[in-house]
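The methods section describes the discrete structure representation at length, but only in general terms. Each protein is reduced to its one-letter sequence and a matching series of backbone shape codes. I believe one specimen quoted in the main text would settle the matter. An entry of this sort, consisting of the sequence and the corresponding backbone structure tokens, reads as follows.
***
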Amino acid sequence: MKRPEKYGGDKTYTTYEEVVADYVSGSLSAPDLKNAVAAAINRMLEPIRRHFEQPEQAALAAAVRQIARENAERLASEKSSAAASPAPASAASTPAPAGGEKKPKKDKKQQPEAAAAAAAASPAPAEGADAAAGQTPEEIAEAKRQAKLRQKQIQQEAKQKWRAEQAAKAAAAAAAPDAAAPEQH
């Protein structure tokens, strides 16, 4: 891992457990880990990139990108036509929350990872008069700000849980050889 001397200098890890231990202890920061993982992934993907630079493979990649663009345009068109269609009579009788969808009830026992995945999977509130549902721009902005804060809190909770799990695994792995040693006579 390459990093400036003022941040601890370069470091080489030989096992996953070393990385986890440094990350859990705080001696390996999240940005340093992210940059090192990104660099490693880029090194692994380089042969694939070179392969798709060949003329016939480049044409194939361009065709795939075109199909993806067309699918994205089709989905956007379907979403906009769905947003423009009138709401069913049963939905019109009850006011909809901002975003036009009912929010799922919180499960207090829900794992942070599941909550983070649910938050990431939930669609962003639509723009426009339909999304406002009688709310002022200030109320919409506040709702968006609150949603961002909730998402950040969920991510922090998931990260803390992950760190605790990794620390427990590292402690168990460190204790396992010590526990097994007396049994081997």
